């Protein structure tokens, strides 16, 4: 918990742009997101083009990026609730910077290999678990519950802006420099992010050690809250199945664009940037969308958009339209739907959860919804090897269709406001990345 009140008092409508500590968190997040997107762009290309990775190896590499959420996701929440979240963010940034610096040195020395990239991805994944759980648990105490939608919208806008810039920049840079140089930029960005977060002044006071209970008890309490909250339970099932579907696609999409469609790295960067443009638009408009149609309805409607937009990716191989047009259109529409969905559901779960359970609740959610991703990545790699890349992408679309059912076939479509959340009229308007 925190001892200092947020600079913007609850009930006020001032923009978080005027909140000094949020600006520091926002700056650190922006730098980290840019670096992370450059790495996410460079590592698969390094594996496919320079190391000749197979479909299965790409599935394993993708799985490694999310494996820690499945392995340590649950205890991480209890640990974060016992630690100062600002310090956790800083340490996670520095660990990621160190690992990526080692990847650069190894690659430049000519000793890079797919197993080496997998090990690095596993370590980075572990640090990311702690960063993400601490990050989502830190925002409510930093900005106040009345400003959650605006805060989450701004952070989503930053993430989407990084996704717009990084692939386009990476595609251009890879024409003149090697992938390790992009990874080196990431390492530097994590260090600068740690410095920015380190300048946050809000003081955190940890609960007394005497109040701690056995780790198993605290983990169970977080899981129990997620499972017993009826709307949150449906949202978690939807998100976990969506992530499973997305990971199936992610395992083969680089091979699909670079080998099957033979579009090249610049075109691949354009496709990723288009998806990020859609996400940025969603982040900017998320507050207005939830105000107009309601937070409750926003979640299932956004989920229902995901499968049709994802279907445009395998359709790009049919010749119905230029492949790049279908990929760009599908990416932009999918990015919009995913980010609007995320802003609505993350804001809801942050408000509905008691502050003392935030770390454990977020870790429990991440364990369930991100824990499916390594499974999906391995499934995608296996399917790509056995039945081919295009059928694997269609299988991902089918899973995405099933994912929407838990929220589409529920009372959420009839609800404007969700229980436990502030009413739409009381929610501050979000203008995105102002």
From TrEMBL:
It is a multi-pass membrane protein. The chain crosses the membrane at residues 30-52, 58-80, 100-131, 172-197, 235-258, 264-286, 298-317, 323-344, 365-383, 389-409. SUPFAM superfamilies: MFS general substrate transporter. Its main location: membrane. It is found in: Cell membrane. Residues 182-434 form the Major facilitator superfamily (MFS) profile domain. Keywords: Cell membrane, Membrane, Transmembrane, Transmembrane helix. CDD domains: MFS_MefA_like. InterPro entries: Bacilysin_exporter_BacE_put, MFS, MFS_dom, MFS_trans_sf. This is MFS transporter.
